[in-house]
Each structure stands twice: as C-alpha cells, then as structure tokens.
Amino acid sequence: MRQFGPTEVQPTTWAKLKLLSGDLAEALQDMDSALAEYAQALATSDLQLKARAYHKRGRVFKMRNVAEALAHYETCIQLSADAHLHAQLVAASVDAAWVYMEDYRDFARAAEHLQRAEVHLPESHAVLVAKWHNAQGEWHHLQQQYQAALAAFLQARLAALESQDVELQLNVVYNLGTCYAALGRFPEALGYLQEGRTLAVRVGDRNREGRCNKGLGEYYYWLGDYQEAVNYYTAAYAIFAAMHNQLWLTGICYDLAEAWSELGLWEQARRYYQEGIALTQTLEGERYRAAFQELASRFLVLQGSDLTTRTQQILAGLQAYGALTSQECAQLLGLSKEQTLRELQPLIKRGMIIKQGKGPKTQYRLADS
Hints:
Layout: H1 11-27, H2 31-41, H3 47-61, H4 66-82, H5 86-103, H6 107-120, H7 126-142, H8 146-163, H9 166-182, H10 186-203, H11 206-222, H12 226-243, H13 246-262, H14 266-280, H15 287-298, H16 309-321, E1 323-325, H17 326-333, H18 337-349, E2 353-356, E3 363-366
Antiparallel strand pairs: 1-3, 2-3
Helix pairs in contact: 1-2, 1-3, 2-3, 3-4, 3-5, 4-5, 5-6, 5-7, 6-7, 7-8, 7-9, 8-9, 9-10, 9-11, 10-11, 11-12, 11-13, 12-13, 13-14, 13-15, 17-18
Main location: cytoplasm
Keywords: Coiled coil, Cytoplasm, Repeat, TPR repeat
Pfam family, one: TPR_12
C-alpha cells in the first residue's frame, strides 16, 4: 500500500494522521515510533492539534524523562489557554500535577495545577472529572491524608464508571486498593487490587496489569508476607522490563530490594538495589534517589557488594537484634572471639557500625540505630 506524504494531503489532515499513527504505535508499546509520529504533528498551525501532540508526547516521556514530560505539558497548557481549549488545558494540568507530586514531591506546584484545572473543569465531562478527583486523591495520599484521599478516590470511581473508560477505571481501582491498605483496611484493599488485575488481564492492558501486581505485592508486604510480595513484584518486574518502562521498573527494583532484604536474602536484594540505583541515573527528579538512600540506611548490607559473608551476617544480626556483644557476634558467626573482632573492625572503620561501652559489656550497633 502506497503511503501518503505530507505534501499530498491538507496540513491539518496530515497532523491528524500522525496523531493516529502515534496512538497506534503507543498501543503496540513502540514508544520510539510513537514519539516520532507525534513529533510530526507539532508542525501544524492548528492550535488544538498542536496542543494534543505536545500532550501525547508528554505522556510518553513520563515513562522515560519526567523533565521533558513536564516541558511538553507546560507547552500544551499555554497553547490550550491561548486557544481557550478548556478540556485540553484540564487534561494537561492534571498530568503536570502528577509529575510535580510523584516525581518532584512539590505539592505546592501540584496544587496550583489542580486548582487551575478545577476552574476550567467541565462537570459534564466524566473522564476529566474522574481524572481530576483521582489526582486530588493522590495529592492527599502522598501526604498521608488518607481519609481525604479515600473520599476523592471514591468520587473518581463514580465518574470513571460513568465514563465507561476502562483504562481510567483501572487507575482508580488501583489507587483505591493502595489507599485502603494504607488505612489498614486490608480486605477492601485486596478486593480492589484483585478487581484491577482481573480487569487488566481481560482487556490485555499489560501496563495496568503490572501496576496491579505491584499493588498486590505492596499489600502482602504490609501484611508481612514477604515471599508472596516478592512473587507479585517479580511478575510486575517482568512486565515493566518487557515494556522498557524505566519509571515503574525503578519502583519495582526498590520494592524487590526491600522485600528480599526483609527475607535476609542479600544477594537477591543487592541485585535489585544496584539495578534500581543505575536506573535512577536515567530519571529526572529526586523521588527514587532519596528512597534508595533511605533503603540503604535501613539495610546496610545493600551498600557494598564487597562485603564478606561474615560481615553480611553481622549486619543482618544487628539489624534483627539492635545490639550484640562480641561474644554474641561470635556465636552468630561460629567463630572465636578473636576472629570475630577482626571481622568487626572493617565495619567500624567504614562507619557502618559503632562500638559502645568497655569490657564484657561492650556492644555493637548499626551506625544509624
């Protein structure tokens, strides 16, 4: 079949075709092609189509480079304001709010975008109403205002059902599940997360299936069932790795490193910790960098692949018991007291553990405990 060139059709028609081609590529998980197709639509003089192209490119970049995503959203917002495209302005403002609150933890800027969106929110547009309430819920959730978050998510749920938008319903169901879990209402949490996963599998939405697997992993982690958490996290990891979704893959690496650490299986924990650290270098924003730093402060074994099996055992023992004498460390390692002291010295020099007291009452603790 012969392909049309940009000179063979009207410019607005060409832009519409490129947007459709980008949508198709995105549906097929070919994000590079999606970006390229959407880029060709940027040249149009039609402000509505241009704004849509910037918005669509921003949503693809959200998986890769949040700074570039934000730049696209802000351009879309300005174009939409100039052309009085209220629905487009609301959609881009809500997406920009997600970047500010999720990736930059800048809740003031996120609130500004949500307030702007609320001013122009068409109450008859169920999709936008659901998206706005969903974002408002997450704004509260991330600040641990769980009751306010739940109220917003429930409003989003009603609007999403009215819209018949399956993708939107999946997003809201996932957020409801995590919110109920944060409130300690685990039966409701499990119900929503399972509903979301079932729906995602039924419609073939791999991205949302991965998110629901992550949510189910978090659910079992909160219950202290770390092995079951690992099982769901691993399923989510496989999906996001296949999709090359670096943002969510980074989050799953954190989850797996944390869960394996709780199980005391340090080789697996360090594998995902190191992969996650590497992935944070490709992402803008401090969201995961700070999280991995906090994780390493909780589980010092993650900090060095050069640690011996014995030093790993010492750190794990101190993690579990809080403080140990040299005799207790020796019993833990099955070594003499003199050999144990030799194993302790490098950890003291590296600032990973501290020595307190003198004589038989001398104890060793983690440096941050």
